[in-house]
Write a sequence for this structure.
């Protein structure tokens, strides 16, 4: 049962098939079948068209914004019942597969945090290459927002603290106000890492083995579908479910990671904060908008840029 679904979809893993599959025959059909890539492509076209109209379609823009708020509120309602679902899913998994499943969960969590540590090291190294020794005070200043994101499992909760922390290391506010919102939609390192680990764990736990080409395809797929993910707890589960559906696997398989999702979500959120903070500082350096270190906590927004 587990292996038959991906085997039936191996013909779709080609560049031609991937590109042709991006265009939906009907947006309603794509929504009904949960074809996340087709929905993303359609949304990009609609968003581009609305932006090109300038102020000629304010009602449409307002409607979309309100719809997004409604969907987030519905998700919030569902998440309030999540603890009961997690208890039931974890109890069912242990009852059917035994206590050794706890060891498997432990390896999963340790593997994720080990990879996250490597990613943090790469982010620090990249920051050091561009920023030099100033990467150290940068990481020192973002400790508070990073810990806040980790403890709340929400990078959105840490957003105001990042806005306060980055100017303290000389990143001008106009760079912060531009890079951070963009990064919160398109530079989600932690979310990408978590979605990859979660999807692979679910597949392997059910006996589904992907070839190297399929794994690469999955990474490319997640690079697209993880963009714009909400910075709230358990938001990554939606992307993982969409990925399972694309591979012809049951969405219900997501239940196997619910028991440890919060532990991983904490690391995901913290990594997103670190990645976007480093990105903001690097962009500021490249654009000549990185000021001298402010003295006594003064805002460096008006200081002359260093060479």
């Amino acid at each position: 049962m587990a292996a038959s679904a991906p085997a039936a979809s191996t013909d779709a893993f080609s560049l031609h098939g991937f590109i042709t599959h991006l265009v939906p025959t009907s947006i309603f059909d794509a929504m009904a079948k949960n074809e996340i890539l087709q929905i993303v492509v359609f949304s990009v076209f609609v968003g581009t068209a609305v932006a090109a109209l300038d102020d000629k379609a304010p009602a449409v823009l307002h409607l979309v914004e309100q719809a997004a708020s409604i969907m987030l509120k519905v998700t919030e309602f569902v998440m309030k019942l999540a603890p009961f679902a997690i208890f039931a899913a974890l109890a069912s998994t242990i009852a059917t597969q035994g206590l050794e499943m706890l060891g498997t969960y432990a390896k999963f969590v340790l593997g994720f945090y080990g990879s996250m540590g490597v990613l943090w090291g790469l982010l620090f190294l990249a920051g050091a290459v561009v920023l030099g020794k100033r990467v150290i005070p940068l990481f020192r200043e973002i400790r508070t927002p990073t810990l806040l994101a980790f403890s709340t499992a929400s990078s959105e909760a840490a957003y105001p603290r990042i806005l306060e922390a980055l100017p303290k290391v000389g990143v001008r506010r106009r760079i912060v106000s531009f890079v951070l919102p963009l990064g919160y939609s398109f530079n989600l390192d932690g979310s990408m890492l978590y979605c990859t680990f979660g999807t692979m764990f679910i597949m392997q736990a059910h006996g589904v083995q992907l070839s190297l080409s399929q794994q690469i395809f999955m990474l490319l797929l997640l690079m697209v579908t993880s963009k714009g993910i909400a910075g709230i707890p358990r938001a990554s589960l939606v992307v993982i479910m969409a990925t399972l559906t694309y591979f012809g696997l049951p969405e219900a398989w997501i239940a196997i990671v619910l028991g440890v999702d919060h532990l991983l979500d904490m690391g995901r959120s913290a990594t997103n904060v670190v990645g976007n903070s480093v990105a903001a500082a690097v962009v500021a350096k490249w654009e000549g908008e990185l000021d001298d270190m402010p003295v006594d906590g003064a805002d460096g927004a008006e200081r002359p840029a260093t060479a």
